């Protein structure tokens, strides 16, 4: 069974991508295949944080230049794959998930609680950056992404988003 990889963009990101989104574009999609995305700036550079609707698993892409926004869906897909593997997920599980992401759909954000958690992760990222010796976020991007997924999320049954994602992906692969 194939799913649409739904990227729900904030208005700020949709403007940067030069796309129009409307509520009609929100697909009745499995939450595990739906991700919210938001652009933020740090030291005058553009970054994007992407968060899974179901598990709150998240990662940062950046720094992004204008030409990279035209390949945004590919960047998100590659970001998902790269971060899940870096998190220690089994390659078979990751590849099975990625193969099910047949098509990409852009839609507006739909859950304020996810936006709130995205903003919390941006604050955590900035805190991490300011308390570690790196000139840019890119210098410690993998470390930041691991750190953010070990951040306590009280809305999750597993507390940590990395654990929630691992459990959800294993369940998905076994179905």
Structure in words:
By secondary structure, the protein is of the alpha/beta class. It has a single domain, classed as 2-Layer Sandwich (Nucleotidyltransferase, domain 5), CATH 3.30.420. 42% of the residues lie in helices and 22% in strands. The chain has a 5-stranded mixed sheet with strand order 4-3-2-1-5, sandwiched between helices.
Short description:
This protein has 175 residues and is of the alpha/beta class.
The tally of structural domains comes to: 1
Q: What structural class do helix, strand and pairing data support?
A: alpha/beta
Specify the overall morphology: globular
Discrete helix count: 6
Order of helices and strands: EHEEEHHEHHH
Question: What low-confidence regions span 5 or more consecutive residues with pLDDT below 50?
Answer: none
The total strand number stands at 5
Task: Provide the CATH top-level class.
Answer: Alpha Beta
Please give the largest β-sheet: 5 strands, mixed
Spatial order of the strands forming the largest sheet: 4-3-2-1-5
Radius of gyration: 15 Å
Q: From the coordinates shown, what is the CATH architecture?
A: 2-Layer Sandwich
How confident is the prediction overall: mean pLDDT? 88
Beta-strand portion reads 15-25%
Task: Estimate percent helicity.
Answer: 40-55%
CATH topology: Nucleotidyltransferase, domain 5
Question: End-to-end distance, in Å?
Answer: 10 Å
InterPro entries: DUF6933
Pfam family, one: DUF6933
Protein name: DUF6933 domain-containing protein
Domain DUF6933: 6-157
Per-chain topology:
Layout: E1 3-9, H1 11-17, E2 34-42, E3 45-52, E4 58-64, H2 72-86, H3 91-100, E5 101-108, H4 112-130, H5 141-148, H6 161-174
Parallel strand pairs: 1-2, 1-5
Antiparallel strand pairs: 2-3, 3-4
Helix pairs in contact: 2-3, 3-6
């Amino acid at each position: 069974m194939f799913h649409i990889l739904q990227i729900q963009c904030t208005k700020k990101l949709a403007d940067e991508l030069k796309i129009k989104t409307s509520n009609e574009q929100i697909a009745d999609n499995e939450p595990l295949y739906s991700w919210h995305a938001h652009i933020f700036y740090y030291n005058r550079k553009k970054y994007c944080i992407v968060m899974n609707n179901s598990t709150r698993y998240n990662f940062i892409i950046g720094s992004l230049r204008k030409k990279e926004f035209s390949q945004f869906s590919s960047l998100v897909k590659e970001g998902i794959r790269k971060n899940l593997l870096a998190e220690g997920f089994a390659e078979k599980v990751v590849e099975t998930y990625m193969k099910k992401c047949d098509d990409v759909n852009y839609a507006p954000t739909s859950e304020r609680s996810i936006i709130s958690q995205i903003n919390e992760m941006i604050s955590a990222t900035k805190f991490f950056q300011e308390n570690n010796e790196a000139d840019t976020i890119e210098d410690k991007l993998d470390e930041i992404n691991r750190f953010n997924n070990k951040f306590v999320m009280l809305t999750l049954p597993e507390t940590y988003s990395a654990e929630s994602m691992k459990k959800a992906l294993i369940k998905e692969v076994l179905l």
